[in-house]
């Protein structure tokens, strides 16, 4: 019944027909800004969110701000403490291990879908994303490299065609970036190895070798997790 209804809707819709513009609500826009602030360290781990101050800084009323905060609580980026308020989550070595366990599961599923259904599109988009990593590495810009790395993995999950995998990946990638930002004075990646690892993922997709792709993905995740946890231990 559902497919029949969808099919009818698709047939009724003519090419070039105007459709309602999808606009984000104020709460969604505020949530995006808060995520970015957490990811880049403007709101560091453990910091308390003052509702009045944030509403003033963002130029919004408290209603949409509270809705946005609750979204981030649901995502696990904020924690609520009774009688105290909302705080940005702290992350320890166990959290990092858990983040990468979940990331591997999500990106593994994305890779399986890509090799089986979306190889051509994935190779084109991921090659472009990996090229931006090369450019950032050449400039020695750590923040730009981290942005390009994040874009690569966002693209990897998006090209899988699964909206649910994308939603799960979003929070995990923000948490990973939180760790990198908090440890920026201690975390030192092998830049060339990082660039090469991502090129290896693209090459495996292009070859259509699912076993090789999944093996390289797991090695890449384990290496990143060990470097982060090593930095936290310092």
From TrEMBL:
SMART domains in alphabetical order: FCD, HTH_GNTR
Keywords of this entry: DNA-binding, Transcription, Transcription regulation
Top-level division of the source organism's lineage: Bacteria
InterPro entries: GntR_C, TF_FadR/GntR_C, Tscrpt_reg_HTH_GntR, WH-like_DNA-bd_sf, WH_DNA-bd_sf
Residue ranges of every copy of the HTH gntR-type domain listed in the record: 24-91
A GO term for molecular function: DNA-binding transcription factor activity
Pfam families the UniProt entry points to: FCD, GntR
Residue span of region Disordered: 1-24
Gene3D superfamilies registered for this protein in UniProt: GntR ligand-binding domain-like, Winged helix-like DNA-binding domain superfamily/Winged helix DNA-binding domain
SUPFAM superfamilies per record: GntR ligand-binding domain-like, Winged helix' DNA-binding domain
Presence of the UniProt keyword Transcription regulation in the record: yes
Entry keyword Repeat: no
PANTHER family membership: GNTR FAMILY REGULATORY PROTEIN (PTHR43537:SF44), TRANSCRIPTIONAL REGULATOR, GNTR FAMILY (PTHR43537)
Protein name: GntR family transcriptional regulator
Species: Saccharopolyspora rhizosphaerae
Lineage of the species this protein comes from: Bacteria, Bacillati, Actinomycetota, Actinomycetes, Pseudonocardiales
């Amino acid at each position: 019944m559902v497919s029949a209804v969808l099919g009818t809707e698709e047939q009724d819709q003519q090419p070039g027909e105007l459709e309602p513009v999808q606009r984000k609500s104020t709460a969604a826009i505020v949530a995006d800004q808060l995520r970015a602030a957490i990811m880049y360290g403007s709101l560091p781990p453990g910091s308390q969110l003052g509702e009045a101050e944030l509403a003033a800084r963002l130029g919004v009323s408290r209603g949409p701000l509270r809705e946005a905060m609750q979204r981030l609580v649901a995502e696990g980026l904020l924690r609520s403490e009774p009688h105290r308020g909302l705080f940005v989550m702290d992350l320890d070595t166990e959290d990092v291990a858990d983040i990468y366990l979940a990331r591997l599961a999500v990106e593994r599923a994305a890779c399986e879908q890509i090799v089986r259904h979306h190889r051509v599109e994935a190779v084109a988009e991921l090659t472009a994303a990996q090229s931006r990593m090369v450019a950032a590495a050449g400039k020695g810009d750590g923040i730009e490299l981290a942005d390009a790395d994040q874009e690569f993995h966002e693209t990897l999950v998006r090209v899988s065609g699964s909206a649910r995998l994308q939603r799960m990946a979003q929070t995990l990638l923000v948490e990973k970036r939180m760790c990198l930002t908090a440890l920026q004075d201690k975390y030192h990646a092998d830049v060339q190895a990082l660039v090469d690892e991502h090129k290896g993922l693209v090459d495996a997709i292009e070859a259509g070798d699912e076993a090789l792709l999944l093996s390289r993905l797991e090695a890449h995740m384990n290496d990143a997790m060990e470097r982060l946890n090593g930095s936290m231990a310092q």
